[in-house]
Amino acid sequence: MTPIKVAVYGALGKVGREVVNAVCRDPETKLVGAVDINLTQDSLLLPDGSGKVPLTSDLNALLASQKPDVLVDFSLAKAAVNAARTAIKHKVHLVSGTTGLSQAELDEIDRLAKENGVGVVSASNFALGAVVMMHLAKIAAKYFDYAEIIELHHHLKADAPSGTALTTARSMAKARGRPFLVPSDKDTTLKSRGEQVEGVALHSVRLPGLLAHQEVLFGIAGQTLSIRHDTISRECYMPGVLLAVKQVHNYKGLVLGLAPLLGLE
Ligand SMILES: NC(=O)c1ccc[n+]([C@@H]2O[C@H](COP(=O)([O-])OP(=O)(O)OC[C@H]3O[C@@H](n4cnc5c(N)ncnc54)[C@H](O)[C@@H]3O)[C@@H](O)[C@H]2O)c1
Fold first, then answer.
1. Whose CA is nearest to atom 40 of ligand 1?
2. Residue 185: which pLDDT band, with cuts at 50, 70 and 90?
3. Is the model's pTM score more than 0.90?
4. How many angstroms does the Cα of residue 96 sit away from the middle of ligand 1?
5. Hey, which residues are catalytic here?
6. DSSP line for 212-236
7. Same domain, yes or no: 255 and 211
8. Three-class SS state of 212
9. Is residue 122 located within the same domain as residue 250?
10. Same domain, 11 and 113
11. Ligand 1 close to Cβ of residue 97 (< 6 A)
12. What angle do CA 24, 29, 31 make, to 5 degrees?
């Protein structure tokens, strides 16, 4: 089978470097180019020692010369939207993990991708375990009246609570068909009770040494259920990224999140 040709946008970033490594290691994918803005060289040595690929800040030129099948983007929101427009113009499928795009920007990407017959997978969490955790939490939500979420991340994380915690709480309430119950004798405006979303109290922990962790706790008379996901390195995103790289050609337009690719919807 001919390997899928992949270019990486944001290739010198923390996640971009992992993507470069993962694409080189997988026999079904082949790295053909890399893009970043902070360049001191015009080529990138492949981590498996098999040679080098072009490294440039000019995405348009790279897509024209290297003709990848898929562009993987882990950059910045304001750069990612233009990268998406450029990839779609070149009819290159897109797998994007960049967070912070607005709904209007996602709608535009969906429209352009459909018009050009291009697939786009955009997911705010590529860790497969996190996707499964959210799915299990939706199942459990129907059987418990009370729920809280503790999310724990590294101290440099910009937002709190995490996007994953917010999405989990909202999708749990949707699956249940109504908000969770809030213990009635407690003051929910107390800071120590966390942020209330659909009756779920969200607690955010920020510490150096952590990467990304989340525990969903359910309670009902005489019992609790805990569902926990932990990551220990940014390699955690790679099985999800490679899955999306291999499946994105099956879609036309935008697919949000990995759940549809995993048959979890
Ligand atoms: N979806 C997920 O599972 C997931 C996981 C981790 C991080 N993220 C998101 O991925 C993005 C990158 O995260 P990171 O930790 O690797 O950040 P990072 O800052 O380490 O890397 C970003 C890279 O993008 C490059 N870049 C910025 N503007 C660019 C431009 N105009 N053209 C080309 N390259 C440009 C930067 O030079 C940098 O090398 C962020 O939005 C982050 O929130 C998503």
1. 98
2. low
3. yes
4. 10
5. 153, 157
6. EEEEEEEEETTEEEEEEEE--SGGG
7. no
8. strand
9. yes
10. yes
11. yes
12. 55
